[in-house]
Write a structure and sequence with these properties.
The complex is a heterodimer of chains A (283) and B (297). Chain A has helices at 13-17, 60-68, 95-101, 118-124, 132-146, 148-152, 163-175, 193-209, 221-227, 245-250, 252-257, 263-267, and strands at residues 19-30, 34-45, 49-53, 76-85, 88-89, 103-106, 181-185, 213-218, 230-235, 238-244. Chain A is of the alpha/beta class and 283 residues long. The radius of gyration of chain B is 20 Å and the shape is globular. Classes of the chains: A alpha/beta (283), B mainly alpha (297). Bound molecules: adenosine-5'-triphosphate and magnesium ion.
């Protein structure tokens, strides 16, 4: 092949070929004027765990929402580029169509249905499924095996469970849709280090045993790069670096800017957003 | 004023049963408000429209049961149109805009209903008995008993629908968190059509009961105004609240009218409900049964 041209950031061609999900040079604009993503491209291979890293406001969540099409409800719009899943264009599909195809997002901040019980939360994840009660009941059992804590709390209102339990509930709920890929937004947010480790262990287990691929947005670079196979670093709406997780972990710049000593202290302020989330009634 | 216990109970029971009728209207408001945060000003108009449509079909010579079924279909079609024409283009707009849109819907439905069916006062008789019954010394109208039974049945059906079915669970999920509901693949457009359809069917039940009692006429729209204090009392998000709120207003205003009215030159019934609502607003703004807001991060 004539692809001998010099590539600054070589993406292993095998990865591009068997990519489950490909994001190709997308641009996202909020409120018709705020340009947030300025051409983001990434691949998630079948069976991979890919980390999307970057500081506050880099555009991680926006990228995930552009894929799951939850953007429209926030007055955001993909104005350029394309998203391909299993070789088919999926940009423009509604979130429920995407969930049926096997693409589901776990939103930043968990977003459990707080007045529903934990079990009811899990069951809402199966809303789009058409394979019958028995299959759903079997999967519920499976989820309880991955998250024994959820079984203990199954009749509690989700709003009264702990942060860790809510994160488990949100991941379990997404798993109930039998996804091929889960877009997982900041699973570590606000959780104690031990719990973060526990959640990532389960993610890894789900990846290995259930064959689910993950694209996870994280500020916790350290943990994310230990569990992911590949990583992309976003800055200001652009991918500034990408590579095998191992390589990124040993990269001097990454060490300095994202794994630095002061990093842990700084990150606890991540809940402070620059923009005010508007309350939305419809959409 | 001569006071006797049997008479007191007669007034109380009469008031409670009248209150059931308010609850029926309030229920429709609660359904839509709970699911979408929209205060549906058009609920009263929907009651009138449902009743007019039903009377129209019956007067065309249809058997009552068939007419009711067709009217149900019309209410679902109305819900579908409202989603398509009004709600969908207004997605993501602030609640006040949606509230204004429902005022628009109100005028449209009022006008449309009357263009279609005329503005006469129609008699609606679907065979509910109105015989007075005596329980000991206490006089009760059998119509009111039927109304109470219907309201009770409606609440049970709604409770089962919300608590035990897949769609009901999805409706509660949407009420809790729109975005999360969308993220798990619950299609909001379908949900809006379902919610407005259920509210439309509740409006039909209210329309049948009120229409049978007062005749089907424009003033049915005004009973929606009585639903407001019921909602303030019961909380905008509570189905049991709508029922109990209605009972309290119904009983309260009748008792006040009969036993306090004579000292105040009467007509307490007209403002008592609003007075009560005001007091509740001062001390418990979420209503007596408003949903507990879970505060935890
Ligand atoms: N609904 C919105 N309207 C306008 N601007 C938005 C909206 N959502 C996000 N933004 C802006 O887009 C940029 C990227 O936000 P995004 O939430 O994608 O960042 P992030 O990388 O996920 O950050 P964090 O780590 O804080 O979650 C930010 O500057 C943010 O202010
Ligand atoms: Mg984010």
């Amino acid at each position: 092949m004539s692809s001998a041209a010099v590539q600054i950031k070589p993406v292993p061609s095998a990865e591009a070929a068997d990519a489950l999900l490909t994001v190709n040079n997308i641009e996202v604009i909020y409120d018709h004027v705020i340009l947030v993503l300025k051409g983001v491209s990434l691949h998630v291979p079948l069976g991979g765990i890919v980390a999307l890293l970057g500081a506050n406001g880099a555009g991680k969540s926006t990228t995930l929402k552009a894929i799951s099409n939850l953007l429209r409800a926030e007055r955001g719009e993909v104005t350029k580029g394309s998203v391909t899943f299993e070789g088919q264009r999926i940009d423009g599909k509604t979130p429920d169509e995407l969930v049926q195809k096997g693409v589901i997002q776990v939103m930043e901040g968990r977003h459990c249905f707080e007045h529903l019980t934990v079990e009811e939360n899990l069951l809402t994840g199966a809303y789009t499924r058409k394979d019958g009660r028995q299959a759903i009941a079997a999967d519920l059992e499976l989820i309880y095996e991955y998250f024994p804590r959820l079984r203990e709390r199954r009749t509690s209102q989700a709003g009264y469970t702990s942060g860790g339990e809510q994160q488990m509930c949100a991941i379990g709920r997404a798993m109930m849709s039998r996804p091929k890929i889960v877009l997982l937004d900041e699973p570590s947010m606000g959780l104690a280090p031990q719990l973060v480790e526990q959640i990532f262990e389960i993610v890894k287990l789900l990846n290995e045993k259930e064959g689910v691929s993950f694209l996870l947005a994280e500020q916790n670079t350290n943990v994310a790069l230990r569990y992911a196979n590949y990583g992309y670093i976003l800055e200001n709406g652009r991918v500034v670096m990408d590579g095998e997780a191992e390589a990124l972990r040993n990269n001097e710049d990454v060490k300095e800017f994202y794994l630095g000593l002061s990093a842990t202290g700084r990150k606890s302020y991540r809940d402070v957003k620059q923009y005010r989330r508007r309350k939305r009634w419809l959409g | 004023m001569f006071f006797s216990w049997p008479f007191f109970f007669e007034v109380l029971i009469g008031g409670l049963l009248a209150g059931v009728m308010y609850s029926l209207v309030a229920l429709g408001f609660v359904l839509i408000f709970k699911a979408s945060g929209v205060f549906n000003f058009a609920q009263g108009a929907m009651v009138l429209f449902a009743a007019l449509t039903l009377v129209g079909f019956i007067n065309m010579g249809m058997p009552t049961a068939v007419a009711i079924l067709i009217t149900m279909a019309v209410m679902v079609a109305l819900a579908y149109s409202i989603e398509r024409v009004v709600l969908r283009p207004l997605v993501n707009q602030p609640p006040i805009i949606l509230f204004m849109a429902t005022i628009g819907i109100t005028f449209f439905i009022d006008g449309f209903g009357q263009t279609l069916w005329g503005s006469d006062v129609y008699v609606l008789d679907i065979g509910i008995p109105t015989t007075p019954l005596f329980f000991g010394d206490i006089l009760v109208n059998s119509f009111d008993l039927v109304a109470a039974a219907v309201a009770g049945l409606l609440v049970v059906v709604l409770a089962i629908f919300f608590q035990k079915t897949r769609v009901g669970r999805a409706l509660r999920a949407v009420a809790d968190d729109h975005q999360a509901a969308m993220s798990v693949g619950i299609p909001l457009r379908v949900i809006w059509v379902i919610v407005w359809s259920v509210a439309g069917l509740v409006a039909l039940v209210a329309g049948i009961m009120w229409g049978s009692k007062l005749g089907v006429q424009f003033s049915l729209v005004l009973i929606a105004l009585k639903a407001l204090p019921v909602l303030i009392l019961g909380g905008f998000t509570s189905i049991p609240g709508a029922i109990i709120g209605g009972l309290m207003i119904g009983a309260g205003e009748k008792l006040a009218e009969v036993f306090i009215g004579p000292f105040l030159a009467g007509a307490i019934e007209d403002w008592f409900a609003y007075m009560l609502a005001l007091v509740v607003l001062l001390f418990r703004p979420q209503g007596l049964f408003g949903e507990k807001i879970i505060e935890r991060v």
